[in-house]
Amino acid sequence: MKRLLNLVGILSLVTIKGAVAQNYVCRNYDWAEVKSVQTLTPDELKKPSVILKDFRFSEYIYNNKEELEMYYTRHRMIHIVEQKALDESNKIYIGVSSANDLVTFKGRTISPSGKIQEMYKGDMKLVTEDGSQYMILAVEGLEIGGELEYFFTLKSDVNYFSTEYFQGGDFIRKESLKVISPENLVFTSKSYNGLAAAKDTIIDHKRYLEVTAENVKPLPDEKYSIENANRLRLEYKLSENNATNAHHLFSWQDAGRRYYDVTHRFEDEKKAISKFLDKLKLKGKPQQEQIAALENYIKTEFNIQSTGEEESMSKLFSKRYASKTTITSLYILALEQLEIPHELVLTSDRFHIPFDESFESWNYIDDMLIYFPGINKYLDPTSYFHRLGAIPFQNTSEKGLYIKKMTIGDASNGITTVRYIPCPGMDVNYDKLEAHITITTDWKTANMKVNRDMSGYEDNNLRAAYFYAAEDKKEELVKSIFSGWFGEEMKATNTSAANFNMSTDEVNKPF
């Protein structure tokens, strides 16, 4: 979604005519000479590995064509203590869109005896794994007690807001981030979970936003903890362009206008949408019935698929698939024709990055919901596992950016407010188990008649799984639902399920 926003005009916020090309800090970056491995403390020797340094540099610079470019440099140095860490460090993966993204790579291993073996960009190979591309390198000469050091520079898409984490699964002696930009571009930041605040300085007409963390402890291994939301983290964003007196860039109001434009970019296709709505015969029905019918039809008849092609409503109706943003646009434009009051809600996964109202970064905008003030219910337009009144729980109990259409004369736009997204209460979230049990006289067998009612988040998407499952798999699924309670030795007979049809009002009853 953020990539799409770049296509609708973000670049105009930062392009400056007559900007002077500058020197690239990343192109002159190099490592220091080494002759031996570093000495670890007794506490460090108890760990599988120690990251001695993890330095990152995001550099924004104007090229000779007065265009803004971005380069990302990372420099890591790891001391290997145990075999497990050696196995994990035997390959280096660098994610790329193409091999041309990788500008620089240098690597070396240092043995406990001081032997150094160097590796270069030409030693790397481009591979595709799970649909993503990587430049990979098989590391040579790495030993227990030795060290691996490497740095690389990537040319990347220009990011105007970003998240950087400063904590992972290993102990880190020192890690740092520098955001380097032309003097006129001002980046602001906010630190989370105990990370020190970043410092802003200007050196030789370049602006440096820098933060450093030392002796960073690894994240505790807690099975049910929310890791990402609790890691040391820095959020930063472009806030000012002093060359054009542009201030308060990428505000919540800017986001409202941008997302309004995105969801209304097919507004001139009203006839196609009107024809689509005529088939549903919604006029005269209560508001909630209209919304539910619209949602059920879209989620039954259309699939989400991003192809990279130019999209339109007519293509959606003929091909029966489109991207998430186009599907959401269909909802918004259809609801406007039905004259149903609604607001687009932008928010984040609170288990990943909780939405922070005080720092206006569009990095918090990952998920789209629709709120209906007339019935006080929410809808997730692109989740096939949820229906009106239920949205993914990771999007609840936090704030979101609400965007409402405002029309003055012939002009319309999106106005924004930040409000809380509540979590439905226990009256709609429950799991009830009723069991009538008869135990045989030899105490070897328990015969049970069991009924389980689940509602809201407590059905754990089992209703949807049952609804979409093939007929010959439904009984097996029911058995699996109960085996979790009574053990694998359970033998189930006479099983049945009710209220599983996601396309009818059964969805509002307990599964």
Describe this structure in words.
With 511 residues, the chain is an alpha+beta fold. The chain contains ten helices and 23 strands. The strands form six sheets. It has an eight-stranded mixed beta sheet. The chain has a five-stranded antiparallel beta sheet with strand order 19-18-17-20-21, covered by helices on one side. Strands 3-7-6 form a three-stranded antiparallel beta sheet, with no helix packed on it. The protein is globular and about 75 Å long.
Structural topology:
Blueprint (H helix, E strand, L loop, with lengths): L1 H5 L42 E14 L5 E13 L2 H6 L2 E6 L5 E9 L5 E5 L4 E5 L2 E7 L8 E10 L4 E5 L5 E12 L2 E8 L6 E5 L2 E11 L10 H4 L2 E9 L10 H12 L6 H11 L6 H15 L1 E2 L8 H7 L1 E2 L1 H14 L5 E5 L19 E6 L4 E3 L18 E11 L2 E11 L8 E10 L6 E10 L6 H7 L2 H16 L25
Parallel strand pairs: 1-10, 15-16
Antiparallel strand pairs: 1-2, 2-8, 3-7, 4-5, 4-8, 6-7, 9-14, 10-13, 11-14, 12-13, 17-18, 17-20, 18-19, 20-21, 22-23
Helix pairs in contact: 5-8, 6-8, 9-10
